[in-house]
Specification:
This protein is an alpha/beta fold. The chain is about 40% helix and about 25% strand. It contains 14 helices and 16 strands.
């Protein structure tokens, strides 16, 4: 019994020594990753080309195809084992000539306002749409007015993002339904058009577009839907408090065309020990056609590419196969994410981890995870390795839209979580430009992602039984 006791003490001591040694090794490896990203990073240059030389990358557009060709070429130049294009059919919606709108307070008295068609909106009639306006604070308010008051009018959804929520994504989630489903609901009451307050905390003149749906409504019954900038939303709301007879005119020139073929861009470093276990890191290559899509999601694209480049530069040879996936059509269909998941299932590939960057290129604060208790506890044990870089937020509250289709009960999903306070100043608007990108913040995000991928690759994910301490 005494020998067994000393053997157990020796085992614990060895285990503690082993853990300390591993922690020191991991700390040094992560330091190498950050040094390489900050001193010799490539992400910023890639993003400059993607944003300024190519520009906005709406699904199905010429620029989207140019982005596919450019990123494929850059991945090939990294010397990865595999680089390929995964075909996917995507919707092709075009905005047409710039939208025009004005508020009319009396015949011949008007003021122009800034609007942008929502992605997927139908056009107005050739002469535009002009009608009185009813302001509501959300979809639930429509029933209060009913068809008698709404028929023949334009619905103005004016619920703002809540300013008291520190998590700006929670604020966004609290009012995005009026943008996405507003037209589909308003048409049930006879509305002839919809305008939606732009989803941003900032008061400015930039209308913020985004996806919307008509659900299964026949084309001939669909009504035009547009975002209005926050400054003009405030102005219109003030006018309506004084005069309910105010009219809004809007002209939208958008068109929905037939689906076209596009591609996910995929590159892989094949694992040295477990080549059939896959780790994915990615962002979405498409963007809206306003601005140049630098934060949404050019930043995530180049950060994901940078993860594999960093491993090559520091001569890290992963145990598992690591893939970068640049998804197409996240913004208005999620076709790329669904296609990738379909192919994974068809080929019966074993994916153990997927990490997405789709929250802007701002200073990284941590990660969100969609996983079970055992895996999350293991991940939390790595948190101290990130604290020297001020990465300290590890939460269980989601991952990323493109990787959600991979969810199967065993794969761990994660999302990079940068500081979000400025993200919705730029999101889906003309203000999402390369000038809004900070080089150092972008590079810190790439290094943070690479560090987490390194730890997942080195240790994998243990089962509950292997995490239990030995019993006396």
């Amino acid at each position: 019994m005494r020998k067994m006791f000393f053997l157990f003490i020796l085992l614990l001591s060895f285990k503690g020594f082993s853990q300390d040694t591993s922690s020191a090794e991991d700390s040094l490896e992560i330091r190498k990753i950050y040094d390489m990203a900050l001193l010799n990073g490539q992400a910023y240059d890639w993003l400059e080309h993607l944003s300024l030389k190519i520009g906005p990358r709406l699904s199905g557009s010429v620029n989207a195809q140019r982005a596919v060709e450019y990123t494929k070429k850059e991945l090939e130049e990294l010397g990865l084992e595999k680089v390929w294009l995964q075909p996917v059919m995507v919707p092709k919606w075009i905005r047409g000539t710039k939208e025009y709108a004005f508020i009319e307070t009396a015949p011949g008295t008007s003021r122009n306002v800034n609007i942008a068609a929502l992605g997927g909106s139908v056009s107005t009639p050739a002469m535009g749409t002009k009608a009185e306006v009813i302001e509501v604070q959300g979809i639930e308010d429509l029933e209060k007015y009913g068809e008698e008051q709404i028929k023949g009018k334009i619905i103005f959804f004016n619920r703002p993002m809540r300013a008291d929520l520190i998590n700006t994504f929670a604020a966004y989630g609290g009012c995005v339904d009026q943008r996405y489903k507003g037209a589909a609901e308003a048409v049930k009451y006879g509305a002839v058009g919809v305008i939606v307050r732009s989803l941003t905390h900032r008061l400015d003149d930039f209308p913020h577009t985004g996806s919307m749906t008509y659900e299964d409504l026949p084309v001939e019954k669909r009504i035009p839907s547009a975002a209005i900038c926050t400054n003009d939303a405030e102005y219109l709301s003030s006018l309506l408090k004084l005069d309910k007879s105010v009219k809004l005119y809007m002209k939208i020139n958008s068109e929905q065309l037939a689906d076209v073929q596009s591609y996910n861009v995929i590159g892989e470093i094949t694992g040295s020990e477990f080549p059939d276990e896959y780790i994915v890191v990615g962002g979405h290559l498409d963007s809206w056609d306003l601005g140049d899509g630098s934060h949404d999601d050019g930043a995530g694209v180049v950060q994901s590419m940078e993860v594999l480049r960093l491993f090559k530069e520091i001569n890290y040879k992963p145990k598992r196969s690591i893939r970068v996936v640049l998804f197409m059509n996240e913004e208005n269909g999620l076709r790329g994410g669904n296609k990738y998941a379909e192919e994974v299932k068809r080929k019966k590939e074993n994916h153990i981890f997927a990490l997405e960057s789709d929250a802007g290129g701002f200073t990284p604060r941590g990660f969100s995870f969609d996983t079970g208790d055992a895996q999350f506890n293991q991940i939390e044990s790595w948190k101290k390795l990130f604290e020297p870089y001020l990465i300290h937020q590890f939460h269980r509250n989601g991952s990323g839209a493109d990787i959600i289709p991979l969810k199967n009960g065993s794969v761990v999903l994660a999302g990079l979580r940068p500081d979000s306070q400025r993200y919705f100043d730029h999101h889906h608007s003309d203000n999402d430009t390369f000038e809004a990108i900070n080089k150092r913040e972008l590079e810190l995000g790439a290094a943070t992602m690479a560090s987490l991928i390194y730890l997942v690759d080195k240790y994998g994910f243990k089962t509950i039984s292997t995490q239990q301490e030995p019993k006396m």
